[in-house]
Amino acid sequence: ATPMSIMVGIGRGAREGVLIKDAQVLETMEKVDTIVVDKTGTLTEGRPRVVDVVAVEGSSEEDLLAQAAAAESVSEHPLARAIVDAAKERELSVTKATDFQSTTGGGIEAQVDGRHIRVGKQDFMANNGVQVPEEIAKKSRAMQSEGRTVVFVAAEENLLGMIAIADPIKQTTPATIARLHELGLKLVMLTGDAQATAQAVASELGIDDFTAGVSPEDKHNYVQDLRKQGRIVAMAGDGINDAPALAAADVGIAMGTGSDVAIESAGVTLVGGDLRGVVKAAALSRATMTNIR
Ligand code: ADP
Ligand code: MG
């Protein structure tokens, strides 16, 4: 039979916005020594907005943004919403796209006004034969070192330019990270975003260990490797791209603000995406298990 105090612990978690699936999750949480976190939507608000548009010579900012918005209009990625909103704000006319295709953790492509438009990270461009001129690459690195996410836009194999997107760090993130460190937990950030962007966010938050440019599969493998090394891993994430890693962790922690797939893959859901719930879950599991013994 399930001990009474576990039920009480789960109940208390629920009242504090930490939804724990079952007794097993609470028991495992106590043993966790490593927390893996996703960046976008987990450490950051995940409500990004466009802060800069840079067009290459021969292309205009308006055209680039309008094409990108058309291609992104079907995507549910937070970056897609930022691009669509920016086009709306500038009152650009955005046509309908067809043949939409998404490469998770890389970018998207679609047919817009007879042109094949791609929007995504530099690797995604390279994989599709789109060259990024050094001058643009340099500008993108400068923006990334300020924590911006940069996506590139191309028509066929020609680069049109890039879009810089800012996604503020959640207000609750710095204190949460400090508390997790105090609890003696090892913290690792994994992100599909670029190295320079990840570096900027990691140093701002004092996260000592991170890996950038990872695919959803990489995130999953990374979690699995840590477990093979004998670590007990909780993984916190919000996106479809995090779902495999959440499922592979000893404890998956989904942001309640994230995708349904992430929530279904997790043992813990944080209401409102409040990251302080990670600390609460750790503290609650320790208190509950001490009570039982
Ligand atoms: P994270 O791991 O930080 O949550 P993702 O794995 O979702 O990020 O995405 C990684 C990168 O892939 C993004 O930083 C972006 O460059 C690119 N990307 C993913 N989806 C899109 C999209 N819909 N439009 C443009 N770029 C995208
Ligand atoms: Mg994410």
Automatic annotation (TrEMBL):
It comes from the Bacteria. GO terms for molecular function: ATP binding; ATP hydrolysis activity; copper ion binding; P-type divalent copper transporter activity. It is found in: Cell membrane. Keywords: ATP-binding, Cell membrane, Membrane, Metal-binding, Nucleotide-binding, Translocase, Transmembrane, Transmembrane helix. GO terms for cellular component: plasma membrane. Coiled coil: none annotated. GO terms for biological process: copper ion export; copper ion homeostasis. Belongs to the cation transport ATPase (P-type) (TC 3.A.3) family. Type IB subfamily. This is Silver exporting P-type ATPase. The chain holds residues 427 to 719 of 776 of the full protein.
